[in-house]
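Co-fold these.
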Amino acid sequence: MTSPEGARMDAAGGTAAGDRPRISVQEVSKVFQVGAEDFVALDRVSLDIADNEFVTVVGPSGCGKSTMMNILAGLEEPTSGAALVNGQAVHGPGPERGVIFQQYALFPWLTVRQNVEFGLRTAGMGKKERRERAEHFIHLVQLDRFADALPKMLSGGMKQRCAIARAYAVDPSILLMDEPFGALDALTRVKLQEQLLETWSAEQRTVMFITHDVDEAVFLANRVIVMAARPGRIFDVIDVDLPYPRHEDVRLSPEFGALRNRVWHSVYHQDAGTSASAMPSTTTARQ
Amino acid sequence: MTVVSTPTTPVASTEVAGAARRRTPRPQRKLLLLNIASIVGGIAIWWLLALNGFDFPTPAAVAGRAVDLARAGTLWEDVLASLGRVLAGFLLGSAVAIPVGFLMGWYAIARGLLEPWIQFFRTIPPLALLPLVLVLLGIGETPKIFVIFLASFLGCVISTYQGVVNVDRTLLNAARVLGAKDGTIFARVVVPASTPFILVGMRVGLGSSWATLVAAELLAAQRGIGHRMQSAQLFYDLPTIFVGIVLIGVLGLLMDRALLFAEGRLTGWQERR
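Predicted complex below.
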């Protein structure tokens, strides 16, 4: 275990007294009304994420992974149960949680710089400070040359980098990422994955990253959460004991291959397995 | 905090979207030439028809009459009267339609209360209300401005409302997670996001204002382009009628271009195609 911070896994195990998890999802259910029927997007899901942990969530469509993220982001309320962040129940969005959407969600009428400054402006930061801060994060995602360009001038990868800079600028301790690289080509995606890991190990944030790409899930995570649909629930939890920093060579290693196969099997052969009942729905016991 | 990862200069340069360099004037110039050729050709056909027994004045006769009317001052008087009415009605209509459309899009209560009335009046051509309005408001400027107001209001309000309803949910969510509250979301997301819809609505509104104006002037006015054409009809004065038709077309086109220009300036951020 050579993760950037040794204490991470202990915290995930919930050992140290008073060292509560950064994110705690407790028996959260979410039911949508679809016509006359109830659609159970999440069925009593429990999950703890420790400080500075990088957790990826994979699962088939309809497994409720985006719903879980929206609840943590404060964009949706759970039907029952509670989502806690820093021990506080989540009601509405907060500056400690940055969200990155699959569709980039840049404001198309604002330049890259203005997009990055958006959150700083709503926080009431002064013009000069705002500009310096935006500059820093635009540089971090290497968009210096495009600081005054409108989103329509940017490629998909550049748009997502801008969205990442915008989320980082308000300095959240938690990043919630909903299939952020889903729409990108393979090469851009790999580059952004490595860039994200480097930023994460340097700045120490807690990340929950949703993806449908098994390789991506294993490459990034300390821990992969596999979800199942109908009803949406946690199906399996797989620890990834690969050392950071991870680069190209990790992808080609046999350990990576074995983990990927395991996650793959868990995601795509859920009907055959009985692990839904065998697996504890909470992950705290797994370390 | 220096976390810049792989040196991605090659990526950055290949990533420059092609859209950045799409300023190719050539096809546009070709289009303009075709436009001019078409106009010249059209006038030539008109001239030929007029010389070959059709009961038309020639373009030269129409131009001559326009010069006469301009010298006499009646042309400017009519144009100013008509433009004044249309601008007053159109600006008032848009000024009311935009806030009403926002209210309808943002608050379900406003939508529920206002929508039946707007849908009802939308099915009535504003001109059909002219007899009633003339009786109630007299024969001054007010009834004409009122009908134009109604025409542009109805054109603009629905599209503003659609614009607000169509604002991308993801953008609203993005603003919320960046700490924006309702007021900020409205001013900094909903308003800019619905601007393209509003401008389309204003263009539709302007078009129907103009149409309504001329018809209203034909029915009841002592000045204005419509009135001038109406009185020319009594004297079988075809050139003056033609001057009126061309004026209406040219002025309508100019106003539409002005709005189109504003649209280009205000909504150039849109991704087209």
